[in-house]
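sorry for the late reply, my laptop died twice this morning and i had to redo everyting from scratch. anyway the thing you sent over, i finally got around to it. pasting the sequence first so we're on the same page, its 367 residues, then the predicted structure underneath. double check i copied it right bc i was rushing
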Amino acid sequence: MLASDLGIQADLRLQLSGFALDVSLRLPASGVTVLWGPSGCGKTTVLRALAGLTRAQGRVALGDQVWQDDAVGRWLPTHQRALGYVFQDAHLFAHLDVRANLLYGHSRRATGAAGVGLDEAVDLMGIEHLLARRPERLSGGERQRVAIARALLSGPQWLLMDEPLSALDAARKAEILPYLERLGRQSGLPILYVTHALDEAARLADHMVLMQSGQVTAAGPLTEMLSRLDLPTTHLDYAAVVLDASVVAHAPAHGQTQLCVAGWPMWVAQSNCTPGQVVRVRVAARDVSVALTPASDSSILHILPATIEAVRDDGVDAVMLQLRLQSNVMAPGPLLLARVTRRSRDKLALQTGLPVFAQVKGVALVA
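ok and here's the structure:
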């Protein structure tokens, strides 16, 4: 598979009627970086400017390869930038079958450029049975999988993806997400993925960049971006954190799978994951409550020692708590969110630094 040590550094400015873009990006050279924010905040404009499809002012570099530097008059056109680009619409050639569409992507690979081969791209996207079909005989999810494979075959050093699921219904979205996860894990290719859907970010991202009104408001690891009380991700009704967990064992008698998070057991609905496999779990703020003493006769299975790290008023009658789980291993424990009422906060005198017990009602595999 591919490997890259080339991060993107970009400082871009663009003035349009009623909109101004002014961003500085430092994107890690591995994993999936999700560019997240509301519609109209400038996400697609950033992606197009990085690719040279939109002419913004500033500087763009991939490692020591400078693609744009207006200070010295340097500008590389799109076809000279080692990028693969996947649009919202697949943009397949209607007169070519899938194999010919893929071979077109391969024909655009620079001489000597590394990259996946045809068989590898076909396997990665699970499209072997589609090779002889024309685009009109493909579902929306299948077309996007072909478009991704075609982009991979061009030998890019980065893959840019502009809301590739936005035009798909829920069923087609569920169909393609496992392939995107596989792509992020196995390709070794750094990916910049644009979306306004937080569920996609939670499932795919290693790193997140948050945008608002043409500017970057925060950037960092996914777990940090989902748990910071000063960010819009924690103001949403469906605010949640994502935790890394390892699969311990299955308990068929109860229809559950046992996981381990920071040394603590957690239970989810039984899955087909194998023991030892690392998975992601989602814990919603509305599914976490707190107590000052551990209950011994509760139906809630996850009652974990924690400390309140931060408190934020959250509407007229609610409070959001940021909790640090006590860890049973050497590393610091992960963060949880808990949305409780103001009445509960006052009754229990909940404040920063107070040791509590996090009562986690629901834990779900991110899948």
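The chain has a mean pLDDT of 92.
thats about all i looked at so far, will dig more tmrw
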